[in-house]
Every structure is written in C-alpha cells, then in structure tokens.
Amino acid sequence: MKKAEIVVLPTLRNADSETIGLNAATQTFDLVGNATVADYYKGTHAVTSVEKCNACHDALGTTFHSGGYGGDVVVCRTCHVSSSGGSHLEMQSRGIDSYVHAIHKFPGV
Ligand code: HEC
Ligand code: HEC
Questions:
Q1: Which of 6, 47, 59, 72 meets the CB 3.0–4.6 Å disulfide criterion with 24?
Q2: Contact 94, 81 (CB under 8 A)
Q3: What's the confidence (pLDDT) of residue 56?
Q4: Residue 28 in contact with ligand 2 by CB distance below 6 A
Q5: Where are the domains of the chain?
Q6: Going by DSSP bridges, is the β-strand pair 25-30/35-36 parallel, antiparallel, or unpaired?
Q7: Rounded to the nearest whole angstrom, what is the distance from the C-alpha of residue 72 to the centroid of ligand 2?
Q8: Which residue's C-alpha comes closest to atom 41 of ligand 1?
Q9: Taken in order 9, 59, 74, 102, is the CA torsion positive or negative?
C-alpha cells in the first residue's frame, strides 16, 4: 500500500438533536513520502464536479446517510466501490459511478 484516502465525516447537532448538513473532507496521503498529495482525486484529476451535482442536489447523502456526507463525491467512493456486488438499485455494482449512471440520464453532459 502506497497511498491512503483519509476521510472526515463531521457530526453537528442542533438543540433539538437534529443533525445539521455539513461537508465531508477527503485527502490523499502518500505513505511512502509521508506527505499529503495534491490533485489526486481533486483539481484536474477530480472524479466528478461536485458543484455540478449540487446544482440539483444541494448536498448528497446528508439525508439518507448522515449529515456529514455533503460536498464531496470522493467520500462516497471510500465505501461505494465497484468490487461490491450490486443489488436492487443497480445490478452492476454498488460503485458510486454505477449508481450515478443508473439513476441519471445526464443529457448533453
Ligand atoms: C440535472 C439534475 C441532477 C444532477 C446534475 C445530478 N443529479 Fe443526482 N439525482 C437527480 C434526481 C432528479 C434524482 C432522483 C431523486 C429522487 O428520486 O428522489 C437524483 C438521484 C440521485 C441519487 C440517488 C439518491 C437517492 O436518494 O436514492 C444519487 C446518489 C445521485 N443522484 C447522485 C448524483 C451525483 C454524484 C451527481 C453528480 C455527478 C448528480 N447526482 C447530479 C438530479 C440530478
Ligand atoms: C461509510 C460507508 C459509506 C459512505 C462513505 C457512503 N455510503 Fe452510501 N451506502 C453505504 C451502505 C453500507 C449502504 C447500504 C447498502 C447498499 O445498498 O449498498 C449505502 C446505500 C446508499 C444508497 C442507497 C442504495 C439503495 O440500495 O437504494 C445510496 C443512493 C448511497 N448509498 C449513496 C451514497 C452517496 C451519494 C455517498 C457520498 C455522499 C455515499 N453513499 C457514501 C455506505 C456508505
């Protein structure tokens, strides 16, 4: 193993104990060089544009998962990988890419 993806899923509750929607944070770390890696799943190497997703969604996963899952699709990939077998939503796999293409048509994108 040479690199690790570090994920922070924050939790904040209001006075009524309701979870507030927050952005998750992800960062690639180089275990050999002992340093963070710039632009690994970000910048010019981003897996997708979360701003484009959020033009429709505002935040993803903050309702059906938990409040701290917003603002970052790389965080979805830490669990939703194509090596996990599919189920009722998408037969191909539980990978976030499979989900996204199964759910949307994305005309003109
Ligand atoms: C043009 C608008 C639009 C864009 C852009 C968009 N989505 Fe969606 N998305 C939708 C709609 C509409 C649904 C269906 C919502 C429903 O059935 O409640 C949906 C559903 C989903 C779901 C299933 C959520 C659930 O509750 O089951 C996921 C996951 C998802 N989108 C991820 C993404 C990601 C990741 C991106 C960016 C790559 C993205 N979407 C971009 C409109 C959009
Ligand atoms: C900590 C692990 C983890 C993370 C991170 C994660 N998920 Fe999930 N997700 C799961 C598990 C476990 C399930 C339930 C089992 C399944 O259907 O794969 C699930 C279910 C779902 C479902 C419902 C699928 C269905 O069966 O109807 C959607 C949609 C989804 N996740 C989208 C996302 C999105 C979008 C993100 C990123 C914002 C995300 N997940 C991040 C673990 C995770």
A1: 72
A2: yes
A3: 93
A4: no
A5: 3-77, 79-109
A6: antiparallel
A7: 13
A8: 53
A9: positive
What distance in Å separates the CA atoms of residue 3 and residue 89, rounded to the nearest whole number? 31
The token duo for 50 is 């979360």
Please name the helix (run of DSSP H) or strand (run of DSSP E) that holds residue 96, with its range, or none: helix 96-103
Per-10-residue mean pLDDT of the chain, 109 residues long, equals 96 95 96 96 90 92 94 92 84 86 78
Q: Which ligand is nearest to the CA of 103?
A: 1
Name the closest-CA residue to atom 14, ligand 1: 103
Instruction: Give the type of residue at 28.
Output: T
Q: Which atom of ligand 2 is nearest to the CA of 70?
A: 38
Q: Kindly report the number of other CB atoms within 10 A of residue 58's CB atom.
A: 11
Amino acid sitting at position 109: V
Which structure tokens are listed for 103? 């759910």
Q: Does the beta carbon of 65 lie inside 6 Å of ligand 2?
A: yes
Contact 108, 99 (CB under 8 A): no
Q: Does the predicted TM-score (pTM) go above 0.85?
A: yes
d(C-alpha 101, C-alpha 43), whole Å: 22
